[in-house]
Amino acid sequence: MPEKLICPRCGGKLDELIYETAHIDRCLDCGGAWLDSGEMEMVLEAYDEKFTPAQIAQTLSTAAAGVSEGERASVELCPICSARMNPLNFNYSSGIVIDVCPTGHGIWFDRKELDAIQVHHDEWREQVKTLADRFAPEVVQARATALATLQANTKQSAMGRPLVKMFFHVVEFVKSALPPSKF
């Protein structure tokens, strides 16, 4: 690997710094950031960076699906292997188009894209928590009712046994989507 990585956007040199808990490479000229493989997960899980309501509203208001023609035509090369990076709309509909090394070296974020992704991730986390809090009592009640019904029907018929197995797979899936404290 070269001593200093070259910015795939403007050709400037990338300087290493710590962002959240990850060692990322930031371009001081254009403000973009290179995250090596696995560093984006570290940043999103750190959950240290806090955003104002105005930042959240502005970021979420620009969401759009797909990748624009301009982004597809733009050529950014991986600072590690020089392969042409692939544009990807984060979470498909965020409107934040990041550039991903096809060989898995890392991800390029233009100025403010890393913050915008954190906003989307944090908002998603809050929505999941709100939904889990809202629907947990109904899920617990539905589980108990369905279990009692299936157990009663299974005692009467051997055909009910595969349904019970399938039901428990569905219950495990629902439980995996809710916080452990809800069950």
Features of this protein?
183 residues, alpha+beta, 2 domains, 6-stranded antiparallel β-sheet, 46% helix
Question: Care to describe what's here?
Answer:
The chain is of the alpha+beta class. It has 2 domains: 14-123, no CATH class; 134-182. The protein has 5 helices and 6 strands. The chain has a 6-stranded antiparallel β-sheet. Strand 2 and strand 3 (33-36) form a beta hairpin. Helix 2 crosses helix 4 (113-156) and helix 4 runs antiparallel to helix 5. The radius of gyration is 23 Å and the shape is elongated. The termini are far apart.
In short:
Helix content is 46%, strand content 15%. With 183 residues, it is of the alpha+beta class.
Detail the topology: elements first, then pairings.
Layout: E1 14-19, E2 22-27, E3 33-36, H1 39-46, H2 53-61, H3 69-73, E4 86-89, E5 97-100, E6 106-109, H4 113-156, H5 160-177
Antiparallel strand pairs: 1-2, 2-3, 3-6, 4-5, 5-6
Helix pairs in contact: 2-4, 4-5
Structural class: alpha+beta
Domain count, please report it. 2
How can the largest sheet be summarized? Answer: 6 strands, antiparallel
Order of neighbouring strands in the sheet with most strands: 1-2-3-6-5-4
**Beta strand %:** 15-25%
Terminal Cα span: 49 Å
Low-confidence stretches: none
Shape: elongated
Give the total of beta strands.
6
Give me the number of helical elements. Answer: 5
User: What is the string of SSEs from the N terminus onward?
Assistant: EEEHHHEEEHH
- Overall helicity: 40-55%
- How large is the radius of gyration? 23 Å
Mean pLDDT across residues: 78
